[in-house]
Design a protein that fits this description.
The complex is a heterodimer. By secondary structure, chain A is mainly alpha-helical. In chain A, 56% of the residues lie in helices and 0% in strands. The chains are: A mainly alpha, B alpha+beta.
Chain lengths: 77, 392
């Protein structure tokens, strides 16, 4: 194997190592625990989405009316 | 052929024709980076939401009038408590408050801080020694997005809410939630439940909805029927419905990108196939030369297979690495707007790293197999022809 190629292979291995170290060392437990505490406090986990992406707010069939929500669950039972 | 000599020749060959390979690697890295980024964001969001779902109440009931959710009588909570198997009945008061000047909105959430559990959660979240001050006067906790927005509009320490009765209510900003909660708390204002009632226009015996838990999941369907039978205008949603809606939301967005990826990949494969099967290409002459020097068809195929495999691995590792850095270290600027939206408050969240190995393997196979096939089939067709003819 020629030198420049070997050096490039080492660089790729280094990239995998960096990715692996970040993945292992990231405080996942701490981050999820804080989210859980927040959910326990408010009893809800509403995503901080922009309202433009929350389609349930709009009634696409009758735009002047409010969204119908999920009435299907009532009628289903 | 000697293995060392083969690898030496292969690396020399790759290095010599680096400009040709670099263009292919460049396009591949771009495709793989985009797809991996989308899947990383999608799996990270799904993981975080699933974690929060574990501690969410199992059921939510509210009142429906004319197809729209209206305020729910708090007394329904007592009726729910009478049902055998129901526990942790909690009324919720929340609603959106529009900052009329710019059309942006905040989510006001009322919390009953007299509950011991809420008190403990609050202490963990804000890590403050002067928590007693929170209960003196009108105070609220806000998300980072709300704080940044209010600061930009000169509300540094407090905000004057206009209640539906036309009265101004001044509420002080006590603390800001940690940035790790930005996925759900970026646009949130948490305040005592009575204060939230006044700002949102609820009376003392009204709430937005009521939550409860049923510890035995086998009873969930039965409980939905039982609770629905309490009132005709009662609407029940259980945790599974919420989970499904989250999954649909992100599967749809991730799936859309996957379709785009497949379209781009098909085009890329066709271009590669055409390039390698061109009649007077240098590739053809090169293969003919190797055959004339005594290389067997197997040796030629092995060389081209390994050459392609190296290109595939380099592209894959580079694409995934850049996507990882972009999403989990840089916070996926621009692309996160596709998932979270950028119309309301600016959100600077950091994604929890989640590597779904089945997804990574699927990406690799989806990318590598057509790529290798597109190169090897034309190479095999040239290899089996007479070397003299191939070098023409």
């Amino acid at each position: 194997m020629i030198k420049p190629f070997a050096a490039f292979a080492l660089l790729l291995i280094l990239m995998i190592f960096i990715m692996g170290s970040h993945y292992v060392l990231f405080p996942t437990d701490k981050a999820t625990n804080i989210m859980r505490q927040m959910t326990k406090l408010t009893h809800m986990a509403p995503l901080s989405l922009s309202v433009a992406y929350d389609e349930s707010v709009y009634n696409s069939t009758y735009p002047e009316m409010q969204g119908l929500g999920r009435m299907d669950f009532i009628y289903e039972h | 052929m000697n293995t060392n000599a083969f690898w030496h020749f292969l690396s020399l060959q790759l290095f010599k024709e680096r400009s040709k390979h670099l263009s292919i690697i460049g396009i591949s890295v771009m495709i793989l980076f985009l797809l991996s980024s989308v899947l990383f964001i999608s799996s990270s969001l799904r993981f975080t939401l699933e974690e929060t779902l574990k501690v969410q109440p199992d059921f939510v009931v509210n009142r429906i009038q004319g197809g729209t959710a209206v305020s729910t009588p708090e007394i329904w909570g007592d009726e729910l408590l009478d049902i055998y198997g129901v526990s942790k009945v909690t009324p919720r008061v929340y609603g959106r408050y529009f900052f009329e000047a710019k059309g942006s909105s905040f989510l006001i959430v009322g919390v009953d801080f007299l509950e011991e559990q809420s008190h403990e959660n609050l202490q963990i979240l804000i890590d403050s020694t002067d928590i007693k001050d929170f209960f003196n006067g009108n105070q609220m906790l806000v998300g980072e997005g709300v704080k940044a927005y209010l600061d930009a509009h000169f509300y540094k320490d407090s905000y004057n809410f206009l209640t539906p009765k036309g009265v101004f209510k001044k509420v002080n900003i006590f603390k800001v939630f940690p940035s790790q909660t930005n996925l759900i708390a970026n646009d949130m204002m948490v305040m005592p439940i009575d204060l939230a009632r006044k700002i949102l226009g609820y009376t003392d015996d009204e709430v937005s909805d009521i939550t409860f838990s049923v510890p035995n999941p086998d009873e969930w369907n039965m409980m939905t029927d039982k609770v629905s039978a309490l009132h005709y205008d009662l609407h029940v949603v259980n945790k599974n419905d919420v989970q499904k809606s989250y999954e649909n939301l992100y599967n749809y967005k991730g799936g859309l990108f996957l379709i785009l990826f497949l379209v781009v990949l098909a085009t890329f494969t066709l271009i590669l196939y055409q390039r390698y099967s061109m009649v007077y290409s240098t590739e053809r002459r090169h293969i003919g030369l190797l055959r004339a020097l005594g290389w067997s068809i197997n040796d030629v195929l092995k060389l081209k297979f390994m050459e392609t495999l190296v290109v595939v691995f380099i592209s894959y590792i580079l694409g995934v690495f850049i996507a990882y850095v972009y999403v989990f270290i840089a916070g996926a600027p621009l692309l996160k707007e596709v998932f979270l939206g950028g119309q309301n408050l600016h959100n600077t969240l950091s994604f929890v790293p989640v590597l779904d190995f089945s997804v990574l393997t699927s990406i690799f196979l989806l990318y590598a197999l057509p790529f290798i096939a597109a190169v090897l089939i034309p190479v095999w067709r040239v290899s089996v022809t007479d070397p003299k003819e191939a070098m023409l």
